[in-house]
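I'll show an entry:

:::
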Amino acid sequence: MLPEITLSDLKKRLDQLKKLNLSIISYPEIIDILNKEIILPILVTEVRAGNFIERIRINKGDEIFTTKQELSYRTDLENIKSFGRANSPGSSMFYGAVISSPIQLPRIVALAETDELLRSQEKGKVDKDILMTVSKWKITKNMRLAEIVFKKNRIATTPEIEKAYQFHLKAFRKNMPEEEVQKLISILEFYSEEFSKAEITTDADYKISAAYAESAFKTGNVQGIIYPSVRTDYEGSNVALLPKTVDEHLQFEEALIIHVQIRKKKVFLDNLYRTGIVATDTNILGWYKMESASEEVKNKFFGT
């Protein structure tokens, strides 16, 4: 049920929540406030089998990953000390990217979300070369995901977001009075803003989005969350999946080691090594050298 208050009072309550000092309020307090004061509406979409998710890890120095597990979700829960956009300390989440109309290569989205240079205020000012390992995962069974699509002024960013937004809005107006619709929109906009925070001072800034994710997993019968990528100006799409979802719905397909050349606001990807398709029952990765791209191709850059 929606809060039994007027739309005006609800907006005041949401404004107060936006002003909370997240560095001092505890995570359990956040969860309690969200569940008791403004509810957690969960919009559900289905991602069908046959689609792919790409995930990356940055290679440090000469580091080479040799197993599938190293490219999957973390299992060292005791070492997860910080909040993420959809996880709290001590909990593991599988973050990846999926195709969207503006960005056909999910690895571009994953890179923008992972590499510090592309996330910082230095973006576009500094050149950089890095190695990254891209893992490609096939969705083998349909997944129910909570979707975040109500960020103001960004609804028309991709056809996928606009279509989902219009679908949910039509359903709201079919089933409830307009004032209730506006209250629900205000709440969904609040959570969408939390999931799309660009300026992150400390990991505590993720407390509200992490609390939403935790509650959605417990009460919404969903296996993950899909949300727009902040670092690609909301044109890319990210997913955060529970480890159980990865085990039951994804299959490791292959991996590539890629030389990433960042030149101001342009990025070029040069494939160096690949595993090829890896058998389902095999955990060990074997790497095979690929031919370097031609100079003609190297002059074609992806914008970030």
